[in-house]
Design goal:
Elements: E1 2-7, H1 12-22, E2 28-35, H2 39-48, E3 53-56, H3 62-69, E4 75-78, H4 80-86, E5 93-96, H5 104-112, E6 116-119, H6 123-139, E7 142-145, H7 148-156, E8 165-172, H8 190-193, H9 203-211, H10 213-226, E9 233-237, E10 243-249, E11 254-258, H11 264-272, H12 286-289, H13 303-314, H14 318-334, H15 342-355, H16 367-388
Parallel strand pairs: 1-2, 1-5, 2-3, 3-4, 5-6, 6-7, 8-9
Antiparallel strand pairs: 8-10, 10-11
Helix pairs in contact: 2-3, 4-5, 5-6, 6-10, 6-14, 10-13, 13-15, 14-15, 14-16, 15-16
The structure holds nicotinamide-adenine-dinucleotide and magnesium ion (MG).
Catalytic activity: 2-C-methyl-D-erythritol 4-phosphate + NADP(+) = 1-deoxy-D-xylulose 5-phosphate + NADPH + H(+)
Cofactor: Mg(2+); Mn(2+)
Pfam families: DXP_redisom_C (PF08436), DXP_reductoisom (PF02670), DXPR_C (PF13288)
Length: about 400
């Protein structure tokens, strides 16, 4: 039996992961499941899958979690440190599906013990790509991509030489507002932004899809994961979300991953790798699909893509600043402090201000420095938002 842990088990990717695990009784021993405030769900899944330990990220949720697990014999723990410690429990395969920079520390711990890290949490590579790669190299841990685009690229590269790659093309649905008039964007509400045309995902990534911050993070993730030059990474709008990414080779050929927009494609590939096994996903009827369309992303509508290019050019800890400023700006948008289009303006302002703080961006990429930089960027973003509010 393979020992598996799922971080962010109560979320969208986490639930899809548990779905696949539960379909193969006897194949997996579940070690740790972690979640946030939804401890009822966490406890139900821990009992159903016979986990060793269930961990909520929030200290004040320990008692409710304990109550929900009473009599089950499953350990209950709480707090960010407990989440990270759970990643030290011996496991063969660990799903990283916490949302945000909070996913970084547990992912690093899992790699340190030499586990295979199935990485849905794109923030990990955006904030600390070089550190994460070095950790994996040192311990012999392996990282498998779960973001659908990166899984698609990874699959297209099987048996290929990375030297023969000309370009990597990430597709983007364009999000909730792709057809809105530009002038209307400033007044878009969180509720409107939370409505993804094709994918059913957590609220934060869904809003990041509307602003294209999600694709901006994914461009950086692509660079960090595959080690390709930023100008070989392209983004194209593909409203149907059926092609998840393409790889173009030196002979002009392009390999595409085509499938229904269902995260179990990418999760299942990482779970079964290096084998390919049957998955309960919808088979595409291409005649019924009829057409797939593509168009260039509009940089005015999606300034996040330009910011991602600037971050890659700057390097160092600017990815950690970018992500943290984006997370803080998204918090600001969700609670009504700023409008939709202000998110990119806030992030750009924070990138500029922190770049002027001597030594910050160019400090060594250690977990402490990344955490500290993340903190400073959030503080700075809140200041910028307060200034804008007058
Ligand atoms: P979600 O909001 O549905 O779930 C997030 C999970 O993280 C929950 O279990 C929640 O309890 C937990 N969590 C939240 N804050 C936490 C904290 N501070 N500490 C510890 N745990 C915390 O998110 P999701 O849509 O499943 O996305 C998870 C990650 O996967 C994100 O990084 C996202 O970008 C990435 N991703 C998601 C999808 C998708 O289809 N949902 C696709 C590709 C990549
Ligand atoms: Mg993706």
């Amino acid at each position: 039996m393979r020992r598996v842990s799922v971080f962010g088990a109560t979320g969208s990717v986490g639930q899809n992961t548990l779905d696949l695990i539960a379909r193969e009784p006897g194949a997996f021993q579940v070690v740790a499941l972690t979640g946030g405030r939804n401890v009822a769900q966490l406890a139900r899944d821990a009992v159903r899958l016979k986990a060793e330990v269930a961990v909520t990220a929030f200290d004040d949720m320990l008692d409710p979690l304990r109550e929900a697990l009473a009599g089950s014999g499953i350990e209950a723990q709480a707090g960010a440190a407990a989440v990270a410690e759970a990643a030290e429990r011996p496991a063969d395969w660990v799903m990283s599906a916490i949302v945000g920079a909070a996913g970084l520390a547990p992912g690093l711990r899992a790699l340190e013990q030499g586990a295979t890290l199935a990485l849905a949490n794109k923030e990990t590579l955006v904030c600390a790509g070089a550190l994460v790669q070095a950790t994996a190299e040192r311990s012999g841990g392996r990282i498998l991509p779960v973001d659908s685009e990166h899984s698609a690229v990874f699959q297209a590269l099987t048996g290929e030489n990375i030297e023969a790659v000309d370009r990597i093309v990430l597709t983007a649905s364009g999000g909730a507002f792709r057809d809105w008039p530009l002038e209307a964007l400033a007044n878009a509400t969180p509720e409107q932004a939370s409505n993804h045309p094709n994918w059913d995902m957590g609220q934060r990534i869904t809003i990041d899809s509307a602003s294209m911050f999600n694709k901006a993070l994914e461009v950086i993730e692509t660079r960090e994961f595959f080690g390709v030059d930023p100008d070989r990474i392209e983004v194209v709008i593909h409203p149907e979300s059926l092609i998840h990414a393409l790889v173009g080779f030196s002979d002009g050929a392009m390999m595409a991953h085509v499938g229904a927009p269902d995260m179990r494609h990418a999760i299942g590939y990482a779970l079964n790798w290096p084998e390919r096994r049957p998955l309960p996903v919808k088979r595409l009827d291409l005649a019924a699909v009829g057409a797939m369309t593509f168009r260039a992303p509009d940089e005015v509508r999606y300034p996040a893509l330009r910011l991602a290019r600037e971050v890659m050019a700057r390097g160092g800890l600017s990815g950690a600043v970018f992500n943290a400023a984006k997370e803080a700006a998204l918090d600001g948008f969700l609670d009504g402090r700023i409008g939709f289009t202000a998110m990119a303006e806030v992030v750009e302002e924070v990138l500029g201000r922190l770049d002027r703080q001597s030594g910050l961006i160019d400090a060594a990429m250690t977990l402490d420095n990344v955490t500290q930089t993340d903190h400073l960027a959030r503080v700075c973003a809140r200041e910028v938002m307060a200034e804008r509010a007058g």
